[in-house]
């Protein structure tokens, strides 16, 4: 199951840094991470690693790539300014095209990165600072290059109202500056962003030569700067990667290059992939999938000794939640009734039970200690009492002065999502609501569900969020800040919350130091769930990925919360 | 004195109509009796499904999270997919919906769609067959070619393709989305490909009958065409029509299940055998009972209808196979 991370609109995020991830010190990093990545113990070169995928990659264009598994995979042929490196289960941020992790002298408003020299593309040409800058400039054309994160555009100062390399081909983006020698790149930001080196891991910060840019077709044949290059790509069918002999391992702190080829075979369904990986016969021996979470057959493989070495279990960054639309469900008691009617148990069972996820009272995960709050939802600890609280729900509904008993539930037609919606429908009905089930196509859900006004505006939206960096600032600003909304578009603030007291807290958070800011953001979320009843977090997903018995070197990537194929090798 | 002897002596000879003779033959046919009994059970199950919701104190759409393994939502608690005194056929993985009730209500959906489609196909088929056979010439040419073209279509594939088209059409007329449009569309689509089988047989029979003396006689005394078709010819066709209908029903049942299985059928949470089969596919290795139940139900009902159809044909036309 590949899950799309959603674009995040950041408004006035001030002095903050992600406490959990920012363990890497920029100064020491510059010396430590210039060396090539240490070899994986026991790894051998040669052979073909096959990746089984249910569908095609959304986008391989670096600027448009925003999906966990693809963000890992595209690193095989795409280098970015900075990047995550995972060795022995430990993930660090390292300079990739850059030679250091960036320096700032003004608290994060101006960032300068030294660049490695003599990096080559697959065609033998040298990667230049101008190519890095062009990569950023083209990402401004997110009307054509849609789908990707918009951090570059959101953060980089834009005094001249630059509109993108395609819309304004002759114009310059003055906030991105290459040094005269071309060995350093400087970004002037609109706001201080202390965690900017994390932002530069995204594909907008990858080198693309202007002459090779084919706009929306670039994703069909991106020019390689990594250890592999695309030999053939038939959309929806197969992608073949072969070695790129122009890549020099000595310059790369992130990537290995063990197999001769990577083959991505697309189009098999969930169950077929599960079965073939479990059976481990023929080609499946050297296969792995990063878009197929083992779901239906999990009970046969989890905690079974035979599969222990091939099954990778880890917490994903995905929180599944319901946004209650405060524009349409105006009465607080109706919202509280909805909150009490949510049956955490049957929703999680529909998704596969407690082995597939863990109950969560909050969309901020427990691991973000500075912001997480252990509050009750509908008066109970949801991890201990996950069943719906129907009596309380009915009591709240009876108290409502502006009762609304017909609710429109919006959900996406994808995987187990319709079943989860049906589980909610059940308990809402039991609490006395009438539910209109509003199913959206998988490919077109977030934008229409966020449309404000109109007769079919949903009252409850079944949605999810995965943080882009492990801090409350990567969650609360996007999901609950009213400043992200327009009168027509709620963006990621699906509950349409705009509460004066919370907005005051947001303003306070903007100017607070990291630790204090995280605390305030935690307070905001707690208030939004407990006092305003505008949000119900249900569970965090647990991932279970499987590999064939002949694939080694796989590890869980802390940067993208996915099973990484960068170090994969074929066992002899 | 034995019965045989009494016949030989010359007891009064009963005049028996062909229908009566067919009925006598069917009554002696054990296969027919067993098939009819099986069909009867399914029909009864479909008709009395609401009684079972009352007995079991649940509905086919009711989730039962307590029946599922809390750590693996895919696994019902207990053997054979969670079969118990409360859940006679077990429960559905992930939701805990009662499989017996879904099976009973599924029989309702499957049978009513299949029977409606058969009825519609029969009406169209008989009318077209009569027209084609009776008028002959150009009308026959056009209608016969149409039948051949429809028969040549890969019906399931075509049905998959036209379902959304019809659905949009109905929705543009203001029919609400969901099963309110889907079920009529299924009936139309299924009958669209079912009528030529009946029409061809009717046409052939009409051609042979229309030249018979009694038809000639009626025509010579000035009977209208409508009278000729409906009063003289049609009453002589009921035997072949009955046989075709009997053999058409199981085809319709399988096609309906196939359409739903392929995603152009009844929409969840409405129960349907095809939908149950589709939903059970991912679980065949963890919960085979869930796949087996709708599959076996479908197999049994289709077999029963086919065997009964054969018996009806044998009874009506003893020369054909015995």
Characteristics of this structure?
heterodimer; A: 572 residues; alpha+beta; D-Maltodextrin-Binding Protein, domain 2; Dipeptide-binding Protein, domain 3; six-stranded mixed beta sheet; five-stranded mixed beta sheet; 15 helices; 20% strand; globular; B: 322 residues; mainly alpha; MetI-like fold; 0% strand
Describe this structure in words.
The complex is a heterodimer of chains A (572) and B (322). Chain A has helices at residues 26-32, 68-73, 129-139, 151-155, 196-199, 270-279, 298-301, 332-341, 344-351, 390-399, 417-430, 446-449, 476-480, 500-510, 514-531, and strands at 48-53, 82-87, 90-95, 110-114, 176-178, 184-188, 228-234, 238-243, 261-266, 287-288, 311-324, 357-359, 406-413, 434-441, 460-466, 535-546, 551-552, 555-557, 562-564, 569-570. Chain A is α+β, with helices and mostly antiparallel strands. Chain A folds into two domains: 26-264 and 547-570, D-Maltodextrin-Binding Protein, domain 2; 315-542, Dipeptide-binding Protein, domain 3 (Roll). In chain A, the strands form six sheets. A six-stranded mixed sheet of chain A has the order 12-16-11-15-13-14. Chain A has a five-stranded mixed sheet with strand order 7-8-9-1-10, with no helix packed on it. In chain A, β5 and β6 (184-188) form a beta hairpin. Chain A is globular, with a radius of gyration of 24 Å. With 322 residues, chain B is mainly alpha-helical. Chain B has a single domain (43-316), classed as Orthogonal Bundle (MetI-like fold). Chain B contains 13 helices and no strands. In chain B, α2 crosses α13 and α3 crosses α5. The interface between A and B is medium-sized, with 29 and 23 residues.
């Amino acid at each position: 199951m590949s899950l799309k991370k959603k674009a995040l609109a950041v408004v006035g995020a001030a002095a903050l840094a992600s406490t959990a991830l920012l363990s890497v010190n920029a100064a020491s990093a510059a010396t430590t991470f210039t060396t090539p990545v240490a070899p994986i113990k026991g790894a051998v070169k040669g052979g073909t690693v096959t990746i089984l995928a249910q569908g095609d990659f959304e986008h391989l264009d670096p600027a448009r790539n925003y999906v966990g598994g693809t963000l890992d995979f595209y690193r095989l042929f795409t280098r970015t300014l900075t990047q995550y490196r995972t060795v022995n289960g430990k993930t660090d941020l390292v300079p990739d095209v850059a030679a250091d992790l960036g320096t700032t002298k003004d608290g994060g408003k101006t960032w300068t990165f030294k660049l490695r020299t003599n990096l080559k593309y697959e065609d033998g040409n040298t990667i230049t600072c101008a190519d890095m800058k062009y990569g950023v400039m083209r990402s401004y054309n997110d009307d054509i290059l849609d789908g990707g994160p918009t951090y570059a555009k959101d953060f980089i100062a834009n005094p001249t109202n630059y509109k993108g390399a395609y819309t304004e081909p002759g114009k310059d983006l003055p906030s991105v500056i290459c040094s005269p020698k071309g060995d350093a790149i400087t970004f002037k930001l609109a706001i201080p962003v202390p965690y900017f080196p994390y932002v530069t891991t995204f594909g907008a910060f990858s080198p693309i030569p202007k002459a090779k840019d084919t706009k929306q077709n670039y994703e069909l044949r991106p020019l390689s700067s990594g250890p592999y290059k695309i030999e053939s790509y038939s959309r929806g069918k197969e992608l073949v990667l072969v070695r790129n002999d122009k890549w020099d391992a000595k310059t790369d702190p992130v990537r290995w290059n063990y197999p001769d080829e990577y083959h991505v075979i697309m189009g098999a369904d969930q169950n077929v992939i599960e079965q073939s990986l479990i059976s481990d016969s023929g080609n499946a021996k050297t296969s792995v999938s990063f878009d197929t979470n083992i779901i239906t057959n999990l009970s046969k493989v989890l905690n079974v000794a035979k599969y222990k070495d091939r099954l990778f279990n880890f917490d994903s960054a995905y929180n599944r939640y319901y946004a209650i639309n405060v524009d349409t469900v105006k009465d607080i008691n109706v919202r509280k009734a909805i909150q009490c009617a949510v049956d955490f148990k049957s929703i999680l069972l529909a998704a596969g039970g407690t082995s597939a996820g863990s109950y969560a009272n909050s969309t901020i995960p427990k691991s973000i200690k500075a912001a997480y709050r252990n509050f009750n939802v509908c008066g109970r600890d949801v991890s201990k009492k996950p069943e719906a609280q129907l009596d309380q729900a009915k009591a709240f509904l009876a108290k409502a002065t502006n009762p609304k008993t017909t609710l429109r539930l919006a959900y996406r037609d994808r995987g187990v999502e319709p079943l989860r919606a049906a589980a909610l429908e059940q308990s809402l009905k039991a609490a006395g609501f009438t539910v209109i089930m509003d199913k959206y196509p998988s490919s077109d859900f977030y934008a229409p569900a966020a449309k404000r006004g109109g007769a079919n505006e949903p009252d409850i939206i079944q949605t999810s969020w995965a943080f882009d960096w492990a801090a409350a600032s990567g969650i609360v600003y996007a999901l609950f800040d009213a400043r992200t909304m327009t009168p027509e578009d709620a963006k990621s603030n699906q509950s349409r919350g705009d509460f004066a007291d919370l907005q005051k807290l947001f303003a306070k958070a903007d100017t607070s130091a990291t630790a204090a800011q995280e605390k305030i953001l935690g307070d905001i979320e707690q208030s939004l769930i407990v006092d305003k009843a505008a949000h119900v977090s249900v569970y965090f997903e647990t991932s279970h990925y499987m590999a064939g018995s002949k694939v080694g070197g796989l590890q869980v990537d802390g940067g993208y919360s996915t099973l990484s194929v960068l170090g994969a090798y074929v066992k002899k | 004195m034995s019965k045989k002897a009494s016949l030989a002596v010359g007891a009064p000879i009963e005049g028996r109509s062909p229908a009566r003779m067919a009925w006598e033959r069917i009554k002696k046919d054990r296969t027919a009796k067993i098939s009819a009994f099986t069909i009867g059970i399914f029909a009864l199950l479909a008709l009395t499904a609401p009684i079972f919701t009352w007995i079991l104190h649940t509905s086919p759409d009711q989730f039962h999270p307590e029946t599922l393994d809390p750590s693996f939502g895919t696994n019902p608690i207990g053997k054979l997919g969670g079969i118990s005194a409360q859940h006679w056929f077990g429960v559905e993985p992930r939701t805990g919906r009662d499989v017996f009730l879904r099976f009973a209500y599924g029989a309702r959906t499957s049978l009513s769609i299949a029977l409606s489609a058969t009825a519609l196909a029969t009406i169209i088929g008989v009318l077209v067959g009569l027209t084609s056979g009776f008028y002959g010439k150009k009308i026959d040419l056009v209608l016969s070619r149409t039948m051949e073209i429809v028969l040549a279509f890969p019906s399931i594939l075509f049905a998959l393709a036209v379902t959304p088209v019809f659905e949009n059409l109905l929705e543009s007329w203001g029919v609400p989305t969901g099963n309110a449009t889907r079920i009529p569309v299924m009936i139309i689509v299924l009958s669209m490909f079912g009528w030529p089988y009946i029409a061809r047989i009717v046409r052939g029979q009409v051609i042979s009958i229309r030249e018979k003396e009694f038809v000639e006689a009626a025509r010579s005394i000035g009977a209208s065409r409508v009278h000729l078709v409906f009063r003289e010819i049609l009453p002589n066709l009921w035997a072949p029509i009955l046989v075709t209908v009997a053999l058409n029903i199981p085809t319709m049942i399988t096609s309906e299940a196939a359409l739903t299985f392929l995603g152009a059928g009844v929409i969840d949470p409405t129960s349907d055998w095809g939908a149950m089969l589709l939903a059970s596919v991912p679980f065949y290795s963890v919960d085979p009972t869930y796949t087996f139940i709708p599959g076996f139900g479908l197999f049994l009902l289709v077999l029963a209808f086919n065997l009964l159809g054969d018996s009806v044909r044998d009874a009506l036309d003893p020369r054909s196979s015995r």
